[in-house]
Amino acid sequence: MTAQTTITDPQTHAVNLRVRSETRALIDQAAKAQGKTRSEFMIDAARRAAEESLLDQTLVRVDQQTYDHFLAVLDQPPSGGGFERLMAAPKPWQN
């Protein structure tokens, strides 16, 4: 059994990456801030990026009536208590 293989997941595989020292230091700092190992941090980040990339390519098909309703909702100006609170909240860049 190699260091890359774990008992809980026998299907793990090594992925080797070459990065500059400053990039590795940045990754290590971010991983430490989240209480993760470098590998855990990089795997989580890569998984999120992969999922987002695939979701960006998702095609949703709807009938004309549903599409027209969707466009009508998008054309409505924002409103409601949540929107009012958001607009009244202090802006960090205005401090």
Structure overview:
- Keywords: DNA-binding, Repressor, Toxin-antitoxin system, Transcription, Transcription regulation.
- This protein has 95 residues and is an all-alpha fold.
- Helices cover 54% and strands 0% of the residues.
- It contains four helices and no strands.
- It has helices at 21-33, 38-55, 64-75, 81-88.
- α1 (21-33) crosses α2.
- The longest helix has 18 residues, at 38-55.
- The chain starts with 20 loop residues before the first helix and ends in a 7-residue tail after the last helix.
Strand-helix topology:
Layout: H1 21-33, H2 38-55, H3 64-75, H4 81-88
Helix pairs in contact: 1-2
Number of strands: 0
Rounded to the nearest angstrom, the radius of gyration is 22 Å
**What do the pLDDT scores average to?**
89
Low-confidence stretches: 1-6
SSE succession: HHHH
Helix content: 40-55%
Q: How would you characterize the largest beta sheet? A: none
What structural class do helix, strand and pairing data support?
mainly alpha
Q: Give the tally of structural domains.
A: 1
Shape: flat
| Distance between the ends | 57 Å
What amount of the residues lies in strands? under 5%
The number of helices is: 4
TL;DR of this structure?
This protein is mainly alpha-helical and 95 residues long. The chain has four helices and no strands. Helix 1 packs across helix 2.
